[in-house]
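Listing S7. Sequence submitted for prediction.
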Amino acid sequence: MSTPISSIPPNRALEADHQPTVSSPLNPDVKREKQEEAPVARERAARAKKESLKKRESKGGSLAPETNSRATPDPKSNSSFKNKKKENAPALIRYKLPPPKITDFEAPRGPIFLEAHTKIGPDGTEIQFNETSEHVYNKKGFHYTHCIADPAFPSSLYYRQSETEPFGARFNFEDTSTHMFLDEAGKHVTTDKGFRMAKANVAIREGRYYWECKIVSGIPKRTRNEGNIHQESANGHVRMGWARREATLDAPVGFDAYSYAIRDVQGQKVFMSRPKDFFPPGEDIQEGDVIGLEINLPSESLHRKVVEGHYNPAVDLADDEPAGIERADIIRDRVPIRFKTHLYFEQIEYHSVKELEELMNPSPVISTGGGGTSGSMQQPGPIHPVPALRTLPHSCIKIYKNGQLMGTPFTDLLAFLPPASSPIVQVGARAGLDDGMLGYYPAVSVFRGGAAEVNFGPDFWYPPPGYGEVDMAGSDQPITSRFNKLQAVGERYDEQIVEDIVYDIIDEVDFWVQDGCISGKAAANGVLQSAAGVSAQEPPGGSEIKELVQDDE
């Protein structure tokens, strides 16, 4: 019996799923088609979760995009942040200047001293005080440093930074208020006016440093049974401490948030014009007393973590990170100017910011929550949302009296590196740049006959404990790190000179590269600047070196 034809399945091509994997005598021409994977079910795209501003600021890092200027950077992205920073590193402004005069190559000279009056010191020595003239003052929003023309710097239009006699750590004649009298060594200061300030020519940026201040004229010495002497019977008054670049010179140390001071009356500590008890009751700072001031600042690497928002209190417990060879960019936007027979670099000064002004004088509107700067109600700290209100971990100021430690009146000092410090807003000012001279300066204020003498070391009247100790190689004691070793402020002066020389060489090499890396007569004659198409700006007031005029008001 035969099978019906209708029951025989029709011929059809083999489905791909049933094709043999290899050819065979029965299927010699089989070609395996690529099996497509089964389509995956379409998933719904996950939406990025955004966090509130308060939550981001409370964290050590931030998930906010980099374009958000109010976000705190993520510590994990530190390496990418550094690379981005290098790519966007600002270039030094180059000015069009005329060729230097012959006199510009002469060594700069200090001020002219005009004898004013003398004082007798506590030890009976006569001190000659002088009025200084023929020099500029750091005021009206500008900062001045001496400069000189040097044939070894043709690409920098010959000008580089210089110093004047007397060489060494001393009061900065340009960084004192008007109507102050100094000796020719720059170590004694007095005034017949109200409180005025004089700063040293040395900036402390990191490490431990110490200096001394002796009261030459102030509260007279008295015995215990004499009781308190009225303020009117004092021969003037003296305050001493540490001040930043922004601290005003026409006020005492401790006047605002940019300086910390100790006053002679009752040995009180002063910050933001608020005196508080510090010395034991009934103990003043009198004539002949020597006050030692020690400052402790963290390393610049930790400092920059704080101001850039990378500091994490849970991780950065100790300041022991290796220094390395990399350093932050130092940008000095400055132009040479003439003042009588002197040549100076003029640059825009850093100024006080409104956040610190509000900290000193809180607004009633802000205190009641009615407005104000974001974060102004929060006390200063290392992770404060406002850079100007961030403090430095492991920082403090210690006070000694006649060699005896009196205590630590100030801790958690305010940060000073940009963006914590900003220049005055005007034409040519660029925010966020460090000129290498930001820091804390030794400062003294005198009032109506008060006089003081400073000693920046290395031979102190009362050396503090631990000063001058030498680490012995091979001993069982750990070697003291450079941040824990106590140094004299005078030692920092030498380091500062070396830094200025290095910065000048770096600026010269930078301009030389812009000129096509060509030296010789062509570079010296300034031909390559126009040939290479290097853009240069005209300094304020035109292409000529301007003549500066300052009054004594």
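Caption to Listing S7: primary sequence and predicted structure tokens for the chain studied. The helical segments are 53-58, 78-87, 300-307, 354-360, 364-367, 489-514, 521-524, 527-531. Residues 78 and 84 are 10 Å apart (CA to CA).
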